[in-house]
Amino acid sequence: MDASLFGRFRTATDYVRDWSTWRDLPETRRAFLRWVEGADDLDIEERYAALRGDGIRRRWGQLLLTVSLERGHRSYDLRHEDDADRSTDELTTHDDPLDARHLATEDDDGRYRPLKTAPTLRTGWVFPDLSGEEVVEAIDYFYPATVANWHREREGALDVTHWRETAERQTGIYDVVDELSGEQVEWLAQSCCVDSQCLKRRMWDEEEGAELDVPRGEGAFPCREPCSLVVAAARKWTTLEREEAREYTFTLTPSEKEQVEDLVDAVADGRVGEIREADVYEGANRYRARYLRAKRFDDEGNLSGVPTDDEEAD
């Protein structure tokens, strides 16, 4: 068989393989798996050449998916994006999608991850050979409902529940969260719903027609309503906002004032662990913080000896 005839035969075979691959899959999974390999952007010859070569890669949050053709069937390699260049032998291998639920529980330091879509997914593992059905199942354990909501958004069918509606339906200890003002809801979204804290792209606002002036994020999958972590944080912010502001007078040097600001920034941005012990030019350096405490805190832990409440001063 000459090369031209072989090429036409293989293309015809690829069309048949493509049709048989997608025909029995549920709509959401079919749409997602076709998106993974760029089926709407690449023609079939280009796509199958890539699948037979190094495969086609897509990122989903911190996950890296690589689809390739192995023995005539699609094989999906799923791993953390930070492990993109590591060989399978260097990683812990898994073949049961259910294992993803356990891998998603703790971060690299063994700390519990209350928010599955936080950018803290642990590294060092790989699912080297999953089927299409299995890879979607594993992703659903890592990032629950993200594929379904992504598909609803593509179909123009994403139902969004905004903050006011979410707050008004809270009961029990969370009943208070509807007290937050519009400005305070802005601060709430700024603290919890940005890319550094969550990989979802926020689609909810204070209410329909009242958009929050906070970046929605760059995530591939949408967030259709305030999550339980946001509601829990809102309860705390609500109780804090009930306090009346007071005026305190502290004595600080200009550098010490800037250091306090650096400390707040470092904690808020999660950078404290990145600051080296020898880098005493950083305001949030541990030794600088200890120096400030030794100099400006009294024996009761009051900044500049100023008590928090009048009763403490008596």
From TrEMBL:
Any Pfam family matching the protein: DR2241
Superkingdom field: Archaea
InterPro entries: DR2241_Fer4 (IPR041346), DR2241_middle (IPR041181)
Residue span(s) of domain DR2241 4Fe-4S iron-sulfur cluster binding: 156-236
Region (Disordered): 80-103
DR2241 stabilising domain ranges (all copies): 45-154
Name this polypeptide is given: DR2241 family protein
Species, as recorded: Halomarina ordinaria
